[in-house]
Design goal:
It is built from 3 helices and 10 strands; from the N terminus they run ααβββββββββαβ. It has 215 residues and is mostly beta strands.
């Protein structure tokens, strides 16, 4: 969708970003301390680029995720995926999955693509496009690198999300019931399409050195 935006629009918005400090992982102050869940993916390393397969430029599947370190007393797990660099006041929500059983240790590839690969055992919340599904990364061209935060939270007893909750309902629940959290960052960028990928590189002019003179 956003790949059709003119490069000049993405370039003009480069300075407008929600910021990592607005993501749930940073904003939620855990009552029992910053319990650590280790979340990883077989598809990409932390802070490394997402393969196009998992973006709007490829098949658009949600990437596989796995985790460890869920603390005792966890009643359910919640996954929230946000774009920390969307040119919006708050991070763009790409997916919400909740009521994940605490004994689960992974989500397979495509698990969040509810419309294409329905999973009746996975409860999905509402993304920023008001749909209960995965929004594949789709940054504006020339806007720079976007960081996608795959955030997993362990919730204690009493969390009562239902239906298709949105970001605000999720944040309120996390503030009250989160016991531990983990975050995995994947990046993606659409380069300035006005510059051809096969264009020859322009050699930089050599820097002028000091005039040492001959006298």
């Amino acid at each position: 969708m956003l790949e059709k935006l003119p490069d000049m629009v993405g370039a003009a918005l480069r300075g407008q970003r929600a910021g990592l400090d607005q993501t749930a992982f940073v904003r939620v102050q855990l009552r029992a301390g910053q319990g650590a869940i280790q979340i990883t993916s077989l598809a990409f390393m932390d802070h490394a680029p997402l393969p196009p397969r998992f973006t709007a430029d490829g098949e658009g599947l949600s990437p596989p995720l796995q985790w460890s370190g869920v603390p005792p007393g966890t009643a359910s797990l919640l996954l929230l995926v946000e774009d920390a660099d969307s040119p919006t006041p708050h991070p763009l929500v790409h997916a919400i999955a909740y009521d994940i059983p605490p004994q689960e240790v992974y989500l397979p590839e495509g698990a969040l693509n509810a419309e294409e690969l329905p999973n009746p055992d996975l409860k999905l919340g509402r993304n920023s496009y008001l749909r209960s599904a995965w929004i594949p990364p789709d940054p504006p061209p020339a806007h720079g690198v976007h960081r996608y935060a795959f955030q997993l939270f362990a919730l204690g007893p009493g969390a009562q999300l239902s239906g298709t909750p949105g970001r605000e309902a999720v944040l309120e629940t996390l503030q009250q019931h989160a016991l531990a959290s983990g975050c995995l960052i994947g990046t993606y960028e659409r380069h300035d399409t006005s510059v051809r990928a096969d264009a020859p590189a322009v050699a930089a002019a050599p820097a002028a050195g000091p005039d040492l003179g001959t006298s």
